[in-house]
Amino acid sequence: MGSVTGAVLKTLLLLSTQNWNRVEAGNSYDCDDPLVSALPQASFSSSSELSSSHGPGFARLNRRDGAGGWSPLVSNKYQWLQIDLGERMEVTAVATQGGYGSSNWVTSYLLMFSDSGWNWKQYRQEDSIWGFSGNANADSVVYYRLQPSVKARFLRFLPLEWNPKGRIGMRIEVFGCAYRSEVVDLDGKSSLLYKFDQKSLSPIKDIISLKFKTMQSDGILLHREGPNGDHITLQLRRGRLFLLINSGEAKLPSTSTLVNLTLGSLLDDQHWHSVLIQRLGKQVNFTVDEHRHHFHAQGEFNFVNLDYEGNVSFSCSQPQSMPVTFLSSRSYLALPDFSGEEEVSATFQFRTWNKAGLLLFSELQLVSGGILLFLSDGKLKLNLYQPGKLPSDITAGVGLNDGQWHSVSLSAKKNHLSVAVDGQLASAAPLLGPEQIYSDGTYYFGGCPDKSFGSKCKSPLGGFQGCMRLISIGGRVVDLISVQQGSLGNFSDLQIDSCGISDRCSPNYCEHGGECSQSWSAFHCNCTNTGYRGATCHNSIYEQSCEAYKHRGNTSGFYYIDSDGSGPLEPFLLYCNMTETTWTIIQHNGSDLTRVRNTNPENPYAGFFEYVASMEQLQATINRAEHCEQEFTYYCKKSRLVNKQDGTPLSWWVGRTNETQTYWGGSSPDLQKCTCGLEGNCIDSQYYCNCDADRNEWTNDTGLLSYKEHLPVTKIVITDTGRLHSEAAYKLGPLLCRGDRSFWNSASFDTEASYLHFPTFHGELSADVSFFFKTTASSGVFLENLGITDFIRIELRSPTVVTFSFDVGNGPFEISVQSPTHFNDNQWHHVRIERNMKEATLQVDQLTPKTQPAPADGHVLLQLNSQLFVGGTATRQRGFLGCIRSLQLNGMTLDLEERAQVTPEVQPGCRGHCSSYGKLCRNGGKCRERPIGFFCDCTFSAYTGPFCSNEISAYFGSGSSVIYNFQENYLLSKNSSSHAASFHGDMKLSREMIKFSFRTTRTPSLLLFVSSFYKEYLSVIIAKNGSLQIRYKLNRYQDPDVVNFDFKNMADGQLHHIVINREEGVVFIEIDNNTRRQVHLSSGTEFSAVKSLVLGRILEHSDVDQETALAGAQGFTGCLSAVQLSHVAPLKAALHPSHPDPVTVTGHVTESSCVAQPGTDATSRERTHSFADHSGTIDDKEPLANAIKSDSAVIGGLIAVVIFILLCITAIAVRIYQQKRLYKRSEAKRSENVDSAEAVLKSELNIQNAVNENQKEYFF
């Protein structure tokens, strides 16, 4: 098929240089003259006519002669009315009427066009609409402007539907103007050469404009080489147009100098296609038909009086190739056998997107059987079946459903069967048995007729949808015009003399890199590994911020963030630190300490920072955040930031605005200051930065850069390390951002007439809208945007129904989601709608989404032109009462609060988040409202974290204990203001809830002990035999009540969960969420004057029973977790003190994790467990800052200080000896190794501090 790629294209080129101004003007010229009214009768033709007075010549608009219009003999979908305009014209509009004074009119029709009267092409609107809406009566005129216009000589109107009470009737007019241009005919070996006048070339602007048509799928249309090795090539490959540009700047091709673009598809259809290449400077537009690609070219290049060589003619040849389209799986073409009885022979070409379908069936005589030629999974299969015999198969070709033309030749003669695909002969198969082939005289192409016709045709995989051409039987070409006129064979659901194939993947409507595949009638998107989902890969599967992940209940970790939702930016991986404030942490490649030497203004040092995200992704993330910051530390020894003589900067940094910044941590952009200058504590009060003191010792300037518009830092320049003993070092922390302004952006609508308005929503091909709402009203419109006929509307239709209504030109559609519970419960509900070319979907909360498929080949463009109304409608009726939050359209957030501030009856913000999000606060945490959002108050919980879900656990060494004193003195309890105040001596404690988890291997053990001033107590112990015992003594004069659980050894090294709930004399106990017991106490019902709670060893003498005393003396060795007595959390008070709590810790108690890891020793793991937060904010500068600064801390005790000082002296002496050797070695080599930089600098700072006499205080 076609010539070899690289050969000159066998084609017609239409050189339309004189019409360039028309193209650029976009049809603004006058081209709307009536073209039909003056045509002679001979210019009109039709498929048939009802009578001589209903002939096609009477089909002129508004004419009443004859019967008042054209009507065919039979009204069916195979009729047509044809106009010959005499020469190629530009057609810009069409108009239709019905037959004058009759009930005959057409309600929908197709418009076809052709240059030759053969090989018709269908006009399509919006690249997919196949039909025009026609008339509703006989006399009114329906006018359509064609955008784009059509350049053709012949037009054909094909009625699709008509008045059911009448018949087909048409009067028509066509509007346009003359279209003349030069043409050239190339035969694949010839060429047309341009020799440019260099004086006429523009160095700034170049334009190449041409039109071409061809039946060949490969060839070169244009090639131009410049004097500097630059060249441009326009080449057709497999029916697609490739533009290759090499700017010639590089000796070898590279990605920066080569441009390779592809546009268009199925361009080998023997119809005119327009190509336009425009260059303005380095901006290039490449346009094929209506599809445009814009790109920025690298380097300089120029585009390429007339000469030619080879067989070139300046006129149009018209190849007579008549295709036929099989429109549906019910289509077929039945033709008689021309070859004689002893042979089955047929050839044809086909093109399709479908993987399967019948191509040809021929029944055999004498024997009951037949030959089937069909597509299966894109391969051609030839099957001979005969009753009682195994079928004989031949498979040929692969990927034949690629939309390209493929040739097939079938031959079955005597007892041999063969088939060739694209000239490649498949292996011939001998028939089973001596029988010869005898055809029954009929060939069925594309499918089988209905069984009522008595045919034995078989179509196991369904009918064929696609195009065929050059059909021949027994070496005789089939005359398809005779077929169309009914004089040869018969057919059903065909479109003769036209190939109606379209490439639904060009352009590719699968977004975000989705892979497009197609069948004859639809396209499909594979969204695998794109990060998006939906019919067109439009909807991101990731959240837009860490804040959104947090409010789904996620904890700290790495997450993919898609900052612009369904917008063009790709998702990227970052770390979310879910504390009470949600921090987004974005790392870069320059987090290590970097040392700089030997620089000056003429030889500056430049350090660049590359982030894990692109600058566009970073900007979107920063814009969403409430606050962003980045810590920068500049270490200096005789290295200044500013020249003190003239104030010129000696070091500076650059942010995303690509502007030089000379302010440092904490300072506003207009001040050249450091943090110490703002706080007034620089080491030299004459300067605003420590480094500007220019001292011959290490110091630093550290601070937070927090001006969002300048972040992140992308570059640092240092110029003052060229003097003797001059040196600098720097360290940049990760970009930290907190909050999400869009997530909580909300407005409250007070009346049904209130609304907010925004500019028109543009979501022509893909539109998504998402928001949260809460209300107590039973109905109301959330959002509405209108066009002339198109619209979208989202509303609460009833307390249990949310409805999405829309119209894109195919009539109104509605999708509703019904909930089993009411939406007007004053809690937040999430709504998301999406409409694309394939479907519309509506989802509310976690309810099952509802989907409405788009009509096949219907209108696809959503065309809106009014304002977008939020919370109401243009009529100010049926408005919404309540709150709307986080409204996003195609990933872009609308600022409801800003608009609400200037709109009456609408209030910015909305309170009441805890009604929806309070369930996220766990383990006794309380939801608290904020002006923006909420937080979980974990004050009275044994857990911590943003949702009170992080348990606090501790490893207890031998002999250790934690004692929580509810009251140090019975008499002081009445004036207590601590958490223990509710446990004062005047109170009778009749109930308590105790929860904790433990893991140990030691027996006996004391898990928990609660004492009273009245010698009452509660003890939870593991006895020597491993049983769990709970001992209540609520009366000092009676023995304790003992609840014993001896069903297993509780000291088995596994984690166990205990719940004890007492209501007066009734105690409910649960172990490991499955063992439950309820007991009644005999010793009493009240705890009087609670004194303390002990975890671990009992240190003071207590009047307790022998088992408790034995366990108390041994204490507890192992892990305790999430210990809580009513509202008191002793481990939390000990390990995470938020205020002075009466807690005493004795012995080795360290925060740990009680989660057992398989194959490891529990005790050893607890001792070594690291619980450092992976927040990215760990004090990276600590080894340096502690050596430079003179921070004060609490002295742990005189003995500890003395021991610490002795240890420090020993360590410093050893380090001085080691680091002097290391420093001398690094100085000699001038090492720039980043890995060793920080260690070397730390050693120098330690040496410097050992000499300095600055007093230090340490915490032990």
What features would you describe in this structure?
By secondary structure, this protein is mostly beta strands. The protein has seven domains: about 150 residues, Galactose-binding domain-like (Jelly Rolls), CATH 2.60.120.260; about 90 residues, Jelly Rolls (Sandwich); about 170 residues, Jelly Rolls (Sandwich); about 35 residues, Laminin (Ribbon); about 150 residues, Jelly Rolls (Sandwich); about 160 residues, Sandwich (Jelly Rolls), CATH 2.60.120; about 180 residues, Jelly Rolls (Sandwich), CATH 2.60.120.200. The protein is built from 13 helices and 86 strands. Strands 21, 23, 28, 29, 30, 31, 33, 34 and 36 form a nine-stranded antiparallel sheet that branches. β80 and β81 form a beta hairpin. α11 runs parallel beside α13 and α12 crosses α13. The longest helix has about 30 residues. The radius of gyration is 42 Å and the shape is elongated. It is found in: Membrane. One of its GO terms (cellular component) is membrane. Its main location: membrane. It holds the Pfam family Laminin_G_2. One of its GO terms (biological process) is cell adhesion.
